[in-house]
Description:
- It is a single chain.
- This protein is α/β, with parallel strands linked by helices.
- It has one domain (8-213): Rossmann fold.
- Helices cover 27% and strands 29% of the residues.
- The chain is built from six helices and nine strands.
- A hairpin with a 2-residue loop joins strand 1 (57-60) and strand 2 (63-65).
- It starts with 7 loop residues before the first helix and ends in a 17-residue tail after the last strand.
Amino acid sequence: MTKSLTSPTQARYGMIEGQIRPNNVQDRRVIDAMASVRREKFVPKPLQGVAYLDEDLKIADGRYMMEPMIFAKMLSAVQIKEDEHVLDIACASGYSSAVFSILAESVVSLEEDEELAKTATKTLAEEGYNNVAVVTGDMTKGLEKQGPFDLIFTGGSTDQISDNILKQLSENGRLICILNENGFGRAVLMTYKNNIRSKKILFDAAVPTLKAFEIKPKFSF
């Protein structure tokens, strides 16, 4: 675990040099974006001193800010272009959306928790990320009317991704998430073309599961 540093600037530097670069993230745009976003502004005040730890941070009941290294590797894998339109599902406090706003042309952030959505909207505006729109709604349905999207991202691990969400991708769009399969979490890159979904496993990753995307156990009597 990386120790918290007193200066946020030093902490961001430590995150880049101690967590992200050593894990084979060399994408300059991703590194610069994560180095510029003030992560401490997107966590509750009691957690600001540990905002850059190499672990998932609990920011609300059942909701976490993803570990920096995992997030950076996912960003690097999708190679976001400057003219792309992004859907950030489960944006929580808005940190991921802030990073996407630097990398892409526009971001729509979908959050089901009204308080988190309000916090994200406020913080993103205060920090100057003006190409992000936060929407409160059912995260499992996506935002068809706001699409199509060049990239869809989910801010936590999921047990399933519906075709309904995949259909919201643009012609060459892709979805990246942490998918739970057989008890293991893996970062996967997904596409959906001609009613056919494809999946590419990128790397193993364990992050907290989003309750909205859990598969409920079936009981038989």
